[in-house]
Design a protein that fits this description.
The chain has 563 residues and is mainly β. The chain has 3 helices and 45 strands. Helices cover 10% and strands 39% of the residues. It is rod-shaped. InterPro entries: Ig-like_dom, Ig-like_dom_sf, Ig-like_fold, Ig_Fc_receptor, Ig_sub.
């Protein structure tokens, strides 16, 4: 450089500088120094940019980093230099670098530029651009519901978490067909009306970058067939230790279909099976709700709705049998009836009963040992200690044994020779008493009907009547000694009955012997005489006399009194 012999100089141009020393005359020259490159900084600002400019980059994706110079209006041809894990270290005419992101790609990237006609005038380094490569993502498939209602459809959504720029590919398969891509479906959401196994994945970039496929989602079509869970045996009360079978029944619409079944419940399989029933021994853990649904064997993705819940409630206490009997002694030549029942809820049913005699016996009684009736009754004619228990089900579940009941035979009574005469004598006595009572009642009835008064037609007949009554009284006295009280009836003709009419006087003589024997001296007979003129006589020129009823009272002494 001319005019620059000083030890120190100041330069404003970029370039490669060197120096040497001189002295003396003639001039002596040292060797030239090592060169020093001086570059001039240009004021243009430089920025590193990413394409595509997604906020999250995944390992395996291909990206491009570009070094952009913000020019001041003039058009300049530039060359570029990079600093970063995956960039060239020499100047290049290309302002971008493209590479596939890997774990080693992560880091800070910077660049600067210079004019191509001035290699020693360059920009400052750009601000660092940090690249972070994430692991390959997996798409997520969600469904509002996995059951397509009859005649309807469901919406499926595919997404890639915390990233942009994705398109989506959809796939469907079945258990019998291979996976195929659903064409013309690149959207995030799709609607489907077919049953099957669906999956999706995301795509973006050029060359295309694929995410991992989503998890499978099974979509099922709902049939209208109704499904019901039924219990066999259908006892309303189930005890711990009993064996039951739950059956899933499909109410078909007339067609015959081969079905397979799925269960939900504490003691049921969770996978599809060809068996429509499950059999298990009931325990405390068996209590709960049981449901099932079914699907056609030839269409694994078309199924019925879940059945209504069937609630199984398990009784943990073992029931006990109870024995009852109205008699404990077997009559001679007879038997005693024993009853066995299960001391459980009134809803407990289905029991059979097993009978045993003697405490040490484990063999149940047979028809040779007793007469078996329905409803847990037997008739036994042998004495012994009896007990029973209930049992039900194919794998027989037994109750606890009942308490024991002792049945004894009743001793036969000793024969009595006169035993057959006693009822005969009693019968005869009662018959005689009954006849006497009837006679006494008949006599009393007559006495009450007829009074102890005698009616007579006139007073001039009293002597005759008295005579007749006296005779009758004597006769009555004689008769009363035999019978006690007697009634004597006598016909008495009227003395004036010259015309042989039918006028009759009726006399009744009653002797009352009801008094004590001490009153024999004052015994009286009272007579009542009735006079009846059948055809009264008429005298010429005179009217017929009016019938006159006259009553004559006579006191008649009995024969005993006269004596």
């Amino acid at each position: 450089m001319r005019d620059q012999q000083n030890r120190d100089i100041r330069v404003s141009q970029g370039g490669i500088y060197s120096c040497r020393g001189t002295r003396g005359n003639p001039v002596y020259y040292t060797d030239i120094s090592d060169v020093v490159t001086i570059e001039k900084t240009i004021s243009n600002k430089v920025v590193v940019k990413q394409q595509p400019n997604w906020p999250q980059i995944f390992r395996g994706e291909t990206i491009t980093l570009t070094c952009e110079v913000q020019e001041g209006g003039e058009t300049t041809e530039w060359e570029y230099e990079w600093r970063g894990p995956s960039t060239p270290t020499q100047w290049t005419h290309n302002n971008d670098v493209t590479f596939r992101v890997s774990e080693s790609s992560s880091g800070d990237y910077m660049c600067k530029s210079r004019r191509r006609d001035d290699s020693y005038s360059s920009t400052e380094w750009s601000e660092a651009f940090t690249l972070s490569g994430s692991n390959k993502p997996r798409a997520t498939l969600t469904a509002g519901t996995t059951i397509i209602p009859v005649g309807g459809s469901v919406t499926l959504t595919c997404s890639v978490q915390s990233s942009d720029g994705w398109k989506y590919e959809w796939f469907r398969r079945t258990q019998t067909t291979s996976e195929v891509q659903i064409r013309d479906q690149e959207n995030r959401d799709i609607r489907v009306s077919q049953g099957g196994i669906y999956s999706c994945r995301g795509t973006r970039g050029n060359p295309v970058y694929y995410t991992d496929k989503s998890d499978d989602v099974t979509i099922e079509i709902t049939f209208s067939n109704k499904v019901v869970v039924k219990q066999q045996p259908n006892w309303p009360q189930i005890f711990r230790g009993e064996t039951i079978t739950l059956t899933c029944e499909v109410q078909e619409g007339g067609e015959t279909t081969e079905w397979e079944y799925e269960w939900r419940g504490p003691r049921t399989p969770t996978q599809w099976t060809h068996n429509n029933d499950v059999t298990f021994v009931v325990s405390e853990s068996s209590s709960g709700d049981y449901m099932c649904k079914s699907r056609r064997r030839d269409d694994s993705y078309s199924s019925t709705e879940w059945s209504e819940a069937f609630t199984l409630s398990v009784s943990t206490d073992q029931p006990k049998a109870q024995i009852t009997s109205h008699m404990r002694d077997i009559p001679v030549g007879g038997s005693v009836t024993l009853n066995c029942s299960v001391n459980a809820s009134s809803s407990s049913s289905g029991w059979k009963y097993y009978w045993y005699r003697d405490e040490k016996s484990s063999e149940a009684l047979t028809t040779q040992d007793a007469v078996f009736h329905s409803n847990g009754q037997i008739s036994v004619s042998q004495e012994g200690l009896y007990r029973c228990r209930g049992g039900r089900g194919n794998s027989v579940y037994y109750t606890e044994d009942s308490q024991s009941v002792r049945i004894d035979k009743k001793a036969a009574p000793e024969p009595e020779s006169s035993s057959f005469l006693t009822p005969l004598i009693v019968g005869l006595v009662c018959g005689v008493l009954l006849i006497l009572l009837l006679l006494l009642l008949l006599c009393r009835f007559k006495q009450s009907k007829d009074s102890f008064f005698v009616r007579t037609r006139s007073t001039n007949q009293s002597s005759a009547m008295n005579h007749m009554i006296k005779d009758e009284g004597q006769h009555s006295r004689h008769a009363s000694t035999v019978q006690g009280d007697a009634c004597v009836y006598e016909s008495i003709k009227d003395h004036d009955d010259t015309q042989n009419d039918d006028s009759v006087l009726y006399a009744q003589v009653s002797q009352d012997r009801a008094k004590t024997k001490k009153d024999n001296d004052d015994s009286l007979l009272y007579t009542q005489v009735y006079h009846n003129k059948a055809k009264p006589k008429r005298h010429k020129g005179k009217p017929a006399p009016a019938a006159a009823d006259e009553t004559v009272y006579s006191e008649v002494k009995s024969q005993t009194a006269l004596d």
